Amino acid sequence: MLNSNLIKAIVAIAIIAGGIYVIMIDEPATPTGDINSIQPLPEQDEP
């Protein structure tokens, strides 16, 4: 029983640490162009 709880604790710590790592490292790309302008969709050929 102790071995099972130890494995669960290690897995939980690894998941939490991985989540924190991803949040700290992730740098969202800045949007390019004017995000306030609305561009019309290009016309599509008939299917």
TrEMBL record:
Transmembrane intervals: 6-25
Keyword flag Transmembrane: yes
Stated name of the protein: Uncharacterized protein
Species this chain originates from: Marinobacter aromaticivorans
Keywords: Membrane, Transmembrane, Transmembrane helix
